[in-house]
Design a protein that fits this description.
The protein is α/β, with parallel strands linked by helices and 361 residues long. It is built from 10 helices and 18 strands. It has a 9-stranded mixed sheet with strand order 11-10-9-8-12-6-13-16-15, with helices on both faces. Strands 2-1-3-4-5 form a 5-stranded mixed sheet. It has helices at residues 2-9, 45-55, 81-88, 107-114, 125-130, 132-138, 170-182, 190-196, 271-280, 292-300, and strands at 22-27, 30-36, 64-67, 92-95, 118-121, 144-152, 156-158, 185-189, 213-217, 240-244, 259-263, 285-288, 306-312, 322-323, 334-342, 345-352, 355-356, 359-360. Strand 15 and strand 16 (345-352) form a beta hairpin. The longest helix is centred in the middle third of the chain and has 13 residues, at 170-182. The two termini are 33 Å apart.
Length: 361
Amino acid sequence: MRRACELAERGRGSTSPNPSVGAVVALGSTTLGEGYHRVRGGAHAEVEALRDAAARGNDVRGATIYVTLEPCDHTGLTPPCSLAVVDAGVVRAVVGAHDPNPRTAGGGVARLRAAGVAVDVADDAWSQSLIEDFGRAVARERPYVRLKLAASLDGRVAPRPGERHWLTGIESREYVRELRAACDAVLVGAGTVRIDDPLLTVRPARARRRPYVRVVACERDPVPRDRAIFAPLEGYARTIVLAPAGARARFAELETVADIVFCGEGDRLDLALALAALRQRGIASVLCEGGPTLAQHLLEGGFVDRVDWIVAPALLGGPDAVAALAGGPGGVTLRFDRVERLGPDVLLSAVLAEPSGGTLV
């Protein structure tokens, strides 16, 4: 299963909106074949592993298949993987995690068992983490949202408003670039674009089946059209600007450099509608690297699924220092499940529970 998870990681960023899945076919301690889901529309992990076994000249009849996610049991862009496993003559399946997609939801396991295949569901932690974004996205009409925050030990991001300030080390910046590569889109607020003028690319550049998407959320006013985020780049889709519907005239000048998505009816951006619009465009996961205001609005609205808080070994202090969250949302409870050193920094990663009565508990 560990090997299957390693294989699944290779598909991150290219399978969306499908999950990342890996599979290994083995007889005892001998690997007969292995594979992973490479790209949406292509063969799923189970089929890739069975094909790999055939290419090696290995007979899989009587073997066990280890797969990180329950084999699908419906026809989509590809036939059901549960049927492929049964037809291959595999006698046992070890499944890392149940499929949260209602179209399968236990159907794959049921079909295998009905055909006489022994099935063990491992509830494997790594397998579960591979589908965290997929599971939350299929359950709602908005993308999975991962919020990245970087702050000093006293919770500040800059010594004073409007000042660009590097806090974290190279290891943390590399970690964030990996997060960008794994998500369908990276989202920032207008303030971040005005102050930092980020390019928001994945470096070093790498091949990806789905183009990267960069998104700017403008609460009221547009950003200058000469910002780096609007530069056309190979492998990147046209930048999306989320704008309030009542401000069409003010955003007209950006139409030549970006796709403008107007959300709501008033003069302020409706984040719920903005995220729903991204989902309708096929964006299933978003990494938010926005500033204090956007981060606060996302948390207050109950739109965040996971927080990655990177703490730098510094104390900024001072009366003008900018807090990581603009005002700080109340009633938010985090459940930390990962603490890790990133060079001189510390990563605290946590999930947020579903909103209940308007409060995250």
